Amino acid sequence: MKHIRHLAAAGAAALLAAGGSAAIAADVKVGSAAGITGPIEGLVPPILAGRNLAATHVNEQGGILGGGTYMLVPGDSQCNPKAAVDAGTKLVNVEQVVAVIGPSCSGATNGMAQSVTIPAGVVTLSDSATAPMISFLEDGDLVFRAAPSDGYQSSALARFAWDAGLRKIAVTYANDDYNAGLGEAFVAAFEQIGGTITGKQAHEPDRQSYRSELSTLAGGGADALAVFAYFGGSGITILRNSLENALFDRFLGADGMMDNSVIEQLGADTLRGKITLSQPAPEAEGDSGPGESYTAFAEAFMAAGHEPTAPYVSHGYDVAFLMALAIEKAGAADRGKISAALREVANAPGMVIRPGEWQKAREAIAAGEDINYEGASGAIEFDENGDVSGATYTFNGVGDDGTWTPMK
């Protein structure tokens, strides 16, 4: 896959001092780590486009810290802990970024944080790392995320399954931080509401066949198979093995499977009515539809030629915009000041700032006013673990047009 370059302005970036502070008003570099290659590479370009749109808004409305350019420096974490450590090391020690947004995946986030960013005192703010275990890292208040823990998504999916009349479910999950955490949380949630787990298995991704394991799971008489995997890892293979061997014909899954390649490879008619995938929903205000912040983002994102309903694109915008707000609030590209500043610009109370309102935010900060960023992905209020509260979720099936479509 071609290397994806983020927005960068012309002109040389000023070197950061050892403590991470810029001596004069200058360009500010923030790492933008993502699974550019690897099992979710198809999901990443729209997320990066969301991050880039936020940088565009900052730079078109006066820049950062007195006119500097907000620069997102790419790093390919590959959805892999080892690759994430390598990418993080380059971003932190070579590029001398002041902070990192991303990485995309939970295992990559965990690896980079524990081996690189936490020891270096660098804040990370992920848009899509959702494993519950991230909440409990000993991180010195340096690890944040704008997407809610999968403890919420697993509960929502379990309730959906129960309400759909499914009482017995088999579970298979890839042996990585994200999918294993989500799978175990789903098992606990489904059993808590009275459901039966007929069998569960961890599996290694990227194998050519899972027929043997699936045959064992099918022997339990489950109503459905819950598949927690990345579509580009083991997900599509598990669905294909299940359907071709008549082992399962009803499936549940989460946002790691949300890619049109699943439909393209297996066929819309083959999957229609047989699969449901959960995904965090856009910001909503009661029953009135999308909220003002989401609408502002969606209109700008569509004007730039992108689809705002793609997974985690609104979160991608939010982490890039929030990081810029925190640096502006800190008053300097200083690694040691960003953690506290993130909470100050995200958490209420304060003047509400919505996507695209960079100039308004700059003026408020300069005047000494408190601000409260209300994101495209929803209200972002960081708790003591750097987490946001639970979101609402959509449940998607294969629509008449052959794409993933929210179910009514």
Q: How would you describe this structure in keywords?
A:
408 residues; alpha/beta; Rossmann fold; 7-stranded mixed beta sheet; 5-stranded parallel beta sheet; 13 helices; 15 strands; 38% helix; disordered N terminus
Give the percentage of residues in beta strands: 15-25%
> In what order do the strands lie side by side in the largest sheet?
7-6-8-9-10-14-15
What is the fold-level CATH name, i.e. the topology of the largest domain? Rossmann fold
Q: Please count the helical segments.
A: 13
Global mean pLDDT: 91
Tell me roughly what share of residues is in helical segments: 25-40%
Radius of gyration: 21 Å
The SSE string, one letter per element, is EHEHEHEEHEHEHEHEHHEHHHEHEEEE
> How many angstroms separate the termini?
36 Å
Which CATH class of the largest domain is shown? Alpha Beta
What's the short story on this structure?
The chain has helices at 44-60, 81-94, 106-120, 150-163, 177-192, 211-218, 231-244, 260-266, 268-271, 292-303, 313-330, 338-346, 358-366, and strands at residues 28-34, 70-76, 100-101, 124-126, 143-145, 168-174, 196-203, 224-228, 251-253, 275-280, 351-353, 371-375, 378-379, 393-398, 404-406.
